Each structure stands twice: as C-alpha cells, then as structure tokens.
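Researcher: Next sequence.
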Amino acid sequence: MPDREKVIKAIEICYSGKHNCTECELFHVEDCNDQLMRNVLELLKEQETIVRCKDCKHYDTITGMCGKGNTHGYADTWSCADGEWR
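Model: Next structure:
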C-alpha cells in the first residue's frame, strides 16, 4: 500500500502549479500522473467505511437511540465501533 503522507505530498506538488516536479517522489517514474492516480485509488479503496448512526442497523429510528446501548447523543451524524450497515 502506498504511504498516505507521500501520496498527499505528491498531489500537493503536482497540482500546486509551481512545476516543482523534482521535489516529488514520483519524479523518476514514467507516467507519474498515472502512478499517482493508482496510488490514490488504492488508498481510497482501503479506507474503512464509516457507518453513521442514522444508517446503522442498531439505530432505532423511532427513539433515535442506539440499540447497542451507545449513548453519544449525536445519533444522526455520529458513528461508533459497533456501526454496521442496515
């Protein structure tokens, strides 16, 4: 998996408009833009999916409470480790 911080730096360098490509880790890679996009895509695919309480199978839409007993008070926008898609 690509290093997240290195990918962020490469994006910042590439799209800064300053044409300072030599500062980028991908400078010596042929088709560096393609490689950068592959790295970004891989990182996005590996991100954990956050399940908001309002979308969770444990959320009671009538009471607005968590069926797992979690009492965080932000039911519509909050998430927790017990979150699972409906």
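Model: The longest strand covers residues 59-60. The first helix runs from residue 4 to 14.
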